[in-house]
Design a protein that fits this description.
Helix content of chain A: 10-25%
Number of helices of chain B: 19
Strand order of the largest sheet of chain A: 3-2-1-7-20-19
CATH superfamily of the largest domain in chain A: FAD/NAD(P)-binding domain
Largest interface: A-B, 20 and 19 residues
Structural class of chain A: alpha/beta
Distance between the termini of chain B: 28 Å
Radius of gyration of chain A: 21 Å
Helix content of chain B: 25-40%
CATH architecture of the largest domain in chain B: 3-Layer(aba) Sandwich
Radius of gyration of chain B: 26 Å
CATH class of the largest domain in chain B: Alpha Beta
Number of strands of chain B: 21
CATH superfamily of the largest domain in chain B: Pyruvate-ferredoxin oxidoreductase, PFOR, domain III
Strand content of chain B: 15-25%
Strand content of chain A: 25-35%
Distance between the termini of chain A: 50 Å
Largest sheet of chain A: 6 strands, mixed
Strand order of the largest sheet of chain B: 7-5-4-1-3-2-15-8
Oligomer: heterodimer
Shape of chain B: globular
CATH class of the largest domain in chain A: Alpha Beta
């Protein structure tokens, strides 16, 4: 009997769930999780609460790192996958190590998106994707009184709540990209602006950034069309893009994310993609959609693991929760809750 | 608790420059003002096989033992370093070569084996060294550069040591090594920054202390030289060979002579002959060599001829484990040989004592006219500490031989039955003091005599003399608080450092635990040891041997069985293991 060697790339909600499901179902299998980040899996959707100081760091974690060992899952942190060889059934790591697999689940997640027009200012902006980001937010917030929120993805509203609880002055630039990757009509935009205003946020509608510069160790100045805003932190919340550049040339089909069927198979036997990095085919709408949100990620992680083990579990997505934005269909379990 | 207590291990394959890097690291950290205790472990083969490890503990307080938890592992060979992973402390740092010459399987990568809490710092050691110096040979220096950057240690400390080490090898070699170091330092600073603060701050705090980084073997050599060593006879054997190498350079300029003999039997024979002729002489060997010397050592006992023998213990029996440490020659040192052949056996516990006990062994040998065995072990011989060697006084090197009085000229009894058992010893050539020296049992004049009465008298005289040496031998040294103890840990040799650290840790937990250092192995201070034992509910004797050789020697002094902790892994016993044993004894009490 061939020993099963499963490799999971990524230790976010989807990757963690996939690994644990694999181990639960096949206790004898060799399961390895490879993550660029250090530490155990955590709940990224709680990061705004952590920034607000509402929960301690320990509460972010899904489990302590020791529990991987207890479950005989090898967690490799701070290690980066740089390529995939489908023929050899292996991934290569940044330090020139080859890790072979009999089954692979790619749960590489996403990385913060910065619009092209703002890319040159990226060093001046803070994103909030990782725990390291959150720690930086906390550190900087302890030294400043005001924040300019730009973009306006789903996380931005949670962060705004956190900032208001911390009694920070919040400026919020709302524009048509505010709810990226969701499409947003004018009425929704105005409604969102109204809600923010009622909570004490200074809303800046339909502004464009002309320039951005650090004016002191504590403040940046943003020149907009019409105004100028000074703030201690400039937050960039333009959504996430799948972090799959390392797969270019691997033979997997890549669009914005990894194109997978409704079973999350990436087009090669034993290779699956899940979570934020997957673009999932929906046979009814005959198009691909991407999923965001913690609960969806966990469900997808579990589904990918089951299917890697030979089951045929279709990804469930209620049509009414699928949004089409900029040509991409989006499913989210949070959006309706906002 | 020390502010700095850092254990760094460099691990590679023979030929990777592991030991050289460790030496530079130790010296640089010493220059930075930290206490250093370091130990190398390497294979018996010269090159190309096996694992080389340098283990260094640095702190702002005196270090008495190695720590079994590694805070920083520098991997020069990932395959070899994997065996060190179980010893990594939580959140340990691992520096490794992330650009090996070819892709490797997970089995050959350290990154595949570390726990998730470990902080990995991948650096292209070989590539950086090659780019900086034109050769990958400096990759060990590149790794050190990375270490210095990560720990915030100013590179100047390393530069000075590298200059000192390589300046004799030409400008090109020196430059290549400096550049390799700087390349690693620059890379790590750019890539990772300084991740640990505080290590670079100690410079100046102890700056006026004239400390030198010195190994046990060097300390033994210096002790012998300061004692006025005139002749050295030896046959190379690990781990004693460095003593011979050191003296080969240092002894001739002082007017002494060093001769490599055909074997250990010849070596001890020559040492006895030299002392017989009134010249201070020494040999150094290890277990197999001591076994060969056995008969002539007893000849020294019988003929009452001084000798100084360093026995650097290694794993045994027979050829055993040439490059691993053990404390399993105690029986052989104390009892080895035919007949009732009591001799003096002393065992230093640290590098400073290696110096002072060797220095002083010559006087003991002279005064008590007996072979003196200085029992060290691989860990003690090979470890380095930074310390200040005291200036030797005239009293410390004075001739302790008891010469015959003028009035006994022409009626001299070489083996006169005195109250102390010490018979004044004439040196051949002293007119009117002729005598016979023989390995046969003899009369007071030295004439062979096998009569029962004579043998009984002479046997008793020789033992009386050796027991009398107790007045000159150091008493056991106690490290404890309070009178009654739940556990008393008695240790000897290099294991004592771990015992003391374990006892200290136990006391910090509120446990009543003390440690007793025994350096006089034979004769031993029975009354003092018994007095300590009587104050202990339990006595624990940890030793690096299977048989519990010190426990066998002194265990009978306790009212009940002593608890033994006998280990033979070829590596020192960590304090944590002794502490665990102490806790388990108390827990079961």
């Amino acid at each position: 009997m061939t020993e099963e060697r499963f490799v999971v790339v990524g230790n976010g909600p989807a990757g963690h769930q996939a690994a644990m499901t694999l181990k639960e179902r096949v206790p004898d299998a060799d399961v390895t999780v490879i993550s660029r980040h250090r530490g155990s899996a955590y709940r990224p959707h709680l990061l705004p609460d952590f920034v607000a100081g509402k929960i301690p760091e320990a509460d972010l974690y899904v489990c302590p790192t020791d529990s991987y060992k207890e479950k005989d899952v090898r967690l490799r942190t701070g290690q980066k996958v740089v390529s995939l060889d489908l023929k050899e059934r292996s991934v290569a790591l940044d330090h020139k190590e080859i890790v072979r697999f009999t089954g692979l689940i790619i749960a590489a997640g996403g990385k913060p998106r910065i619009p092209e027009t703002l890319f040159i200012f990226r060093e001046l902006m803070l994103t909030l994707k990782t725990l390291e980001d959150a720690k930086l937010w906390r550190e900087k917030l302890s030294r400043c009184d005001s924040v300019l929120m730009m973009g306006g993805d789903l996380t931005s509203f949670a962060v705004t709540n956190a900032l208001l609880q911390l009694n920070k002055k919040v400026y919020f630039m709302l524009d048509k990209e505010a709810f990226w990757p969701l499409r947003c009509d004018k009425a929704t935009l105005e409604e969102a602006g109204h809600r923010l205003f009622r909570r004490g946020v200074e809303v800046l509608m339909e502004r464009r950034v002309k320039s951005m510069a650090r004016v002191s160790s504590r403040e940046c100045e943003v020149q907009l069309n019409g105004d100028r805003v000074r703030a201690g932190i400039i937050g960039a919340f333009f959504g996430l893009v799948p972090d799959v550049r390392f797969l270019v040339g691997s033979g997997l089909r890549i669009d914005r994310g990894i194109l997978v069927d409704e079973y999350l198979n990436a087009g090669s036997a034993g290779v699956f993609a899940t979570g934020d990095c997957a673009q999932i085919y929906h046979p009814e709408i005959r198009d691909y959609w991407v999923s965001i949100g913690h609960d969806n990620a966990v469900n997808l992680g579990r589904t990918s693991a089951l299917n890697l083990l030979g089951e045929c579990v279709k990804v469930e997505a209620a049509r009414e929760s699928i949004f089409e934005v900029q040509g991409i269909r989006i499913n989210t379990s949070w959006w309706m809750e906002f | 608790m020390a502010k700095v207590d850092l254990t760094v291990e460099i691990c590679g394959m023979s030929g990777d420059g592991t030991i050289a890097a460790g030496g530079i690291l130790n010296e640089a950290m010493s220059k930075a003002g930290l206490s250093v205790l370091a130990f190398d472990s390497y294979p018996a083969e010269i090159r190309g096989f096996g694992r080389c490890v340098t283990l260094s503990r640095f702190g702002d307080e005196e270090m008495v033992a190695l720590d079994d938890k590694i805070h920083v592992l520098i991997s020069l060979d990932d395959k070899q370093s994997q065996s060190r992973v179980p010893f990594l402390a939580r959140e340990a740092m691992v520096l490794f070569d992330n650009r090996p010459p070819s892709y490797v399987d997970a089995a050959a990568s350290i990154a595949a084996h570390v726990e998730p809490d470990v902080r990995l710092f991948g650096m292209p050691f070989g590539d950086l060294a090659a780019a900086a110096s034109g050769s990958t040979r400096g990759r060990n220096l590149t790794a050190l550069g990375g270490f210095a950057a990560l720990m915030g240690i100013p590179p100047e400390f390393f530069h000075g040591v590298i200059r000192k080490k390589f300046s004799g090898k030409g400008e090109k070699v020196l430059e290549a090594n400096l550049k390799s170091f700087d390349a690693g330092h620059r890379f790590a600073l750019d890539e990772f920054g300084t991740v640990e603060e505080g290590l670079g701050d100690f410079h100046g705090e102890r700056e006026e202390e004239e400390r030198i980084l010195i190994s046990g073997n060097e300390a033994i050599s210096r002790g012998a030289l300061d004692a006025g060593l005139e002749l050295y006879f030896g046959y190379p054997i690990t781990p004693a060979t460095p003593i011979m190498e050191y003296l080969a350079k240092a002894l001739p300029p002082r007017g002494g002579r060093l001769v490599q003999m055909e074997d250990e039997i010849a070596s001890i024979g020559a040492v006895l002959g030299s002392f017989f002729a009134g010249k201070r002489a020494m040999t150094a060997t290890s277990g197999p060599g001591l076994a060969l010397m056995t008969e002539l050592i007893t000849h020294g006992v019988m003929s009452e001829t001084p000798a100084v023998i360093i026995d650097a213990q290694r794993g045994g029996p027979a050829t055993g484990l040439p490059t691993k440490t053990e404390q399993s020659d105690l029986h052989a040192a104390v009892f080895g040989g035919p007949g009732d052949s009591a001799r003096i056996v002393i065992a230093p516990t640290n590098v400073l004592e290696c110096y002072s006990y060797t220095l002083w062994s010559f006087q003991l040998a002279e005064k008590y006219q007996t072979p003196v065995i200085v029992l060290t072990d691989f860990f003690l011989n090979n470890r380095v500490e930074n310390l200040r060697l005291p200036a030797v006084s005239e009293a410390e090197r004075a001739d302790w031989n008891v010469y015959p009085e003028e009035e006994v000229r022409e009626k001299y009894l070489r083996y006169n039955l005195t109250e102390s058992g010490i018979s004044p010893r004439a040196i051949p050539g002293m007119e009117g003091f002729l005598f016979s020296a023989t390995g046969l049992e003899h009369t007071e004049r030295g004439t062979p005599d096998y009569s029962p009465e004579n043998h009984m008298k002479m046997t008793e005289k020789r033992h009386r003399k050796i027991l009398g040496a107790l007045s000159d031998l150091p008493e056991p040294q106690e490290f404890s608080e309070g009178v009654s103890l739940d556990v008393g840990v008695i240790a000897w040799g290099s294991t004592f450092g771990s015992a003391m650290e374990a006892a200290s840790a136990a006391r910090k937990q509120g446990l009543k635990v003390g440690a007793l250092k025994i350096t006089s192995i034979f004769p031993y201070h029975a009354d003092k040891i018994r007095e300590f034992m009587n104050r202990c509910r339990e006595v624990l004797i940890p030793e690096l041997n299977y048989e519990g050789q010190l426990a066998n020697l002194i265990g009978h002094l306790h009212g009940k069985d002593v608890v033994r902790l006998n280990r033979t892994p070829g590596m020192p016993i960590p304090a944590s293991m002794i502490l665990d044993k102490v806790e388990s004894i108390i827990g079961h009490g």
